[in-house]
Every structure is written in C-alpha cells, then in structure tokens.
Amino acid sequence: MNAGIQESSNLTGGQKLAVKYYTVAVVLFVAQILFGLLSGLKYLQPDFLYEVLDFNVTRMVHINAMIVWMLFGFMGAIYWLVEEESETELVGLKLGNLAFWVLTSAVTVVVLVYLFVQVGPAEMSTIWFIGEGREYIEAPRWADIGIVICLLVFMYNIAATFMKGKWSGISGVLVLDLVALAGLYVAGMYYTPNISMDQYWWWWVVHLWVEATWEVLVGCIMAWGLIKTLGANRKIVTTWLYIEVALMLGAGILGLGHHYFWIGTPEYWLGIGGFFSALEPVPLVAMVVHAVYDSGVHGSKNSNHPALAWLIAHAFGNFFGGGVWGFMHTLPQINLYTHGTQWTTSHGHLAFFGAYATINIAMFYIALQRWRGNVYMSAGLPGNGWKWKWALSLLCTGVVGMTMALLVSGYEQAFVERALGGSTWAAYFEAQRGTWYVQGMYWRQIFGYVTAAGLVLLIWDLLTIGLREKRSMVVPTDHVVVTA
Amino acid sequence: MLEPVELNNIMIAVIAGAMVVLLGALYAFTFAMGKMNKKRWLIGVSYTVFAGLAISVFTLAQSLNLNGYWQLVTYTMLLGYLLAPQAIWKLSVGTHRASD
Which of A36, A48, A81, B37 is least buried, going by the fewest C-beta atoms within 10 A? Predict the structure, then answer.
C-alpha cells in the first residue's frame, strides 16, 4: 500500500461495495440538508415554491433521505467490516453489487416520483406506485418489497460470510439484528383503513428500527470501530456489547409504548409506555461509569483522530439527543401537550444526528484511511486538521442550534396550541403566528445554514484528507496504565 | 388514571426531567471517578449529587401529578439511577479482571 494515494487495490471486494454505499449515503445526506433548508424556509415564506414543491413534499424528501442515507451508511459499514471480522472473502459479492444497484435505482425512482408526481388519488394504485403516506417510510409498496428483498440479500451475504469464515461475538449479535431489521420493515407494509391499527404497526418500524435494531447495529459498529481506532481489547468490547444490548432492549422494546399514548390504543399503554420510557435513559447514564473506567484504566494511541472525534460526538449526541431531550417530554402527563409539536422535532433532530449521523461519519473516515493506503490520520495533520475540526464544529453547532430553536418554538406551541387552545385548528394557527414560535423558526433556519456549511466542509475534507500524506497510520494500542 | 401537568408546572416538569438525566450522569461520573482514584470525598460528592437527583425526581413527580400507579415509576427511577452505575462499576472491574 502506498500511503496518501487513493487506490481501489487497497480495498477488498466487500470494502469496494461499502464505498459505493457510502457514496450514495453522502449524496442523500446532501439531499436531506437541502430539502431540510427548503422546508425550514417555507415556515418563514409560506408562498415560496407554493404549488411547485409544497411543504409536504420537501419535508417528505427531507426525512426519507435521512432514513435512507443512514441505512446506506449502516449497510456500507457492515460490508466494510465483514471480511476483516470473519477473516474470509465476502460471500455473494456479485449479488451484493446487484442489490446495491437495485436499491439505489429504486431510491432514485422513488425520489423522482416524490418530486414530480407528488400525490395520487385515494386508491390502492397510489399506495403501490406513488407513496404509502406513512411518515418516514413513505416509499410506495413496490419499493417496500424491493427494500425487503435487498435487506434479505444483505443479510444472506453477511450471515453466509460469517458461516464460511469465523464467527465472533460482534458477528453473532450483528446477524441476529439483521434478521430483525428486515423482518420489522414488513410491519410497516400492513395496510388497513383503521388509522389506529395502521399507526400501531407503523410504529413497529419507526420505533423498533430506531430504538432497537439501529441501536444494536450501531453498538456492533461502535465495538468494531473502537477495536480499530483504539486497539481496544476484543474480549472486553464484546462483553460490553452483550451488556449494552441487553440494557437497551430491556427498556427500549416496551418503551415503544410512548408512541401508543394518543393513537387510540388501549389505556394500559399509558402505564407500560410511561414506565419503560422512564427507564430508557438509565443505561445511557450507567454507561458513563464504563467510559470513565476505560479512559482511566487504558492508555491508548488512536490511529484516526477524525473518526475518534466523531465517535465521541456519537456518545454525547446519543446521551443528550436520546436521553435528555427524550426524557424531558416522554411521560404521558406532559407528552399530552408536546407530542407532534416542534418539541418532538427538536428531539428528533438531536437524536438522529447524535446517535446515527455521527457514527456513519466516523466510519467514512475509517474507510478513507484504508482506501488511501492506511494513511496517517492522527495528530499534526496538514493545517492542524482544520477542515475536519471545523466541519465537526459547524455540524454540531448547527444541529444543537436548530435543536434549541425548535425547542423554543415547540414550547410555545405546547402552551398556546395544546394546553390553552385545546388542539383546535384555530389554536394551531394562533400558535404558528406567536412571536416566540416565529423567532424560533428564524433561528432554526440560520442554524440550518450553519449545518449546511459544515456539510460542505465535511465533504471537502472527505475528498482530500490523507491525499499526498506520506506518513503511514499509527498502529492503535491499548495498554493498562493503572489498576483499579 | 392520568392527571396531565398543570399549565404553571410545564416549565418545572421540563427542567426537572432534564435534571434527572443530567444529574444521573453526573452521579455516575463522580461515583466512577471516586472509585477509580480511590477518593472517598468524590464518592461523597456522588451521593450529594444523587440527593439532587432524588429532589429532581420528586419535583418531576409532583409537577406531573405522578400519583397511584405512577409512584411505582418514581421509585423505580430512583432505584435504577442509584444502583445501575454501581452494578456497571462491578461489571467493569469484573470483565477487565477476567480479560487480564
């Protein structure tokens, strides 16, 4: 390998496939931010692109692009690590490539339909060919089936590779999680005219994907990432992966109940959802102990500063976005007023970015290091690594700023629209005109631009970091420096 | 069964909710630091922080009208936040010792 030169020969078959997934993920990340900015602008200038690209369309592309780019990022990450982890070549590489092109083509067609067809008549043909109208997973039925098939191909490739090569603790958890990932998506395809039942199953995909299968997937990627960037002890990392998965699933699965408070499900969901949601932050808090223990007991040299910085951003983002922002309004006594307001949007922005975008970006940097010949990416990069540092700062500042601005708007909305106005249409519009609400929306837009600037810088850094660098990567080490 | 938060208490409930998680993390942090560096005063600080956490939990419970069944949520939270960091500490020591 020649350090500083980007060559495909540096990569295995699975890693080349991973790079394709990462590339599409970044393109969709750009689409997410672009359509997010457009959607934010419509709060300030409601006439902007009216009847050309309405709010429902730009918002749909914004949130679907987010879900899909993260999914592409996760799939890329798994393809990236599978061969090293199993110590063998990827099984079904051609099938994997075919599935990639099918999935990418399907996503392209779906986005074009969203943009140019937008809506259809209230008939089954609309569900099949235009969109299902289910927030976050609006893809039409044909694309849904395609997604499940591609996920099954993905699962087969990964499971078969581990079966051919070597199993590990990480791979065992990973494969079981992929079964759930593909299986749960099917729940979102169940059509019924009963809106309560429809929402009941739809949340299986949205909540159980995000707060169960994705969390586990991220746990596996994080475990592998720590071994690679810090040289962390595999046995310890694996043990903690088991513990974390048990804790996350213990509270996370029935935490699903906090989505069932107001959709017409039986009243016992108030108690179940409230109880388990109250316990959901406990594992996040408890893990602080392990982080302190590890940082004190182990002295480590890391091989990839940008990746490690994004992994740290992930730990904090997950804690604040999921833990603090989630718990603030999760109990039904307050959620009665906050659900579906900008308060929820505030939580969503910080949680998705903190828990998932960050770890995908960390994996991009790990991949680039290898692709560019195991190049040096530790301290003392050219320009003191200003591009990745500014990209990290701008993206984090932008998202945190949007989160705070949306919280202000959401707080006003919860008061004026929900608590005082009783959720009537008149109250809805009155809240939208409120000074605090409008100011929050302006600040959200400003921080949206900051986020976009961070993304531009991130892409510039991803395209250039390590090129022409002659030094080779620092070998990560993990050694005990004190004993407790 | 459910008595929603009163209008005047929304802000209190929000701040108390955030404080529960933040003080939970601070308790875990000071507890682990105290154990790690064998500093008894830090362990003392951690329990002081936990007292703050307990106040936050009871403030939250009062502002959200957590009566009847909901008291179970209050006490389970308190117990969870108190014991989980201690259990994780024991697991940390145990797993690292086993791998050395």
Answer: B37
- CA dihedral over A412, A418, A419, A420, signed as positive or negative: positive
A404 touches chain B (CB under 8 A): no
Q: Supply the Cα-derived Rg of chain A in whole angstroms.
A: 22
Nearest to residue A202, comparing CAs of A134, A155, A149, A110? A134
Nearest to A328 among B14, B80, B85 (CB): B14
Q: What does chain B come to in residues?
A: 100
A266 part of contact set with chain B, CB < 8 Å: no
Taking contacts as CB-CB distances below 8 angstroms, the residues of chain A near B37 are: 296
Rounded Cα–Cα distance for residues A338 and B64 (Å): 13
Look up residue A338 and give its two tokens.
């906050």
Strands (E), A363-480: 477-480
Between CA A43 and CA A342 the distance in angstroms is 12
CA A322 to chain B, closest CA, distance in angstroms equals 11
Contact between A29 and A462 (Cβ < 8 Å): no
Residues of B in contact with A237 (CB under 8 A): none
Angle among Cα A97, A363, A344 to the nearest 5 degrees reads: 100
Residue contact A334–B14, C-beta within 8 A: yes
Closest to B85 (Cβ–Cβ): which among A285, A332, A333? A285
> What is the distance between the alpha carbons of residues A117 and A113, in angstroms, rounded to a whole number?
5
Tell me the three state secondary structure of residue B64. coil
Q: pLDDT tens, B47-97?
A: 999 999 999 999 999 999 999 889 999 999 999 999 989 998 998 888 877
Residues of A in contact with B5 (CB under 8 A): 333-334, 336-337
What residues of B are in contact with residue A284 (Cβ under 8 Å)?
21, 25
What is the DSSP track for A374-396? SB-BSSS-GGGGHHHHHHHHHHH
Helix %, strand %, coil % for chain A, to 5?
Answer: 75, 0, 20
Query: How many helices and strands in chain B, by DSSP H and E?
Result: 3, 0
pLDDT, tens digit, 9 for 90 and up, residues A104-125: 999 999 999 999 998 899 899 9
SS3 A472: strand
| Spatial contact of A476 and A303, defined as CB atoms under 8 Å apart | yes
A433 with A421: CB under 8 angstroms?
A: no
H or E, element range at A300: strand A298-301
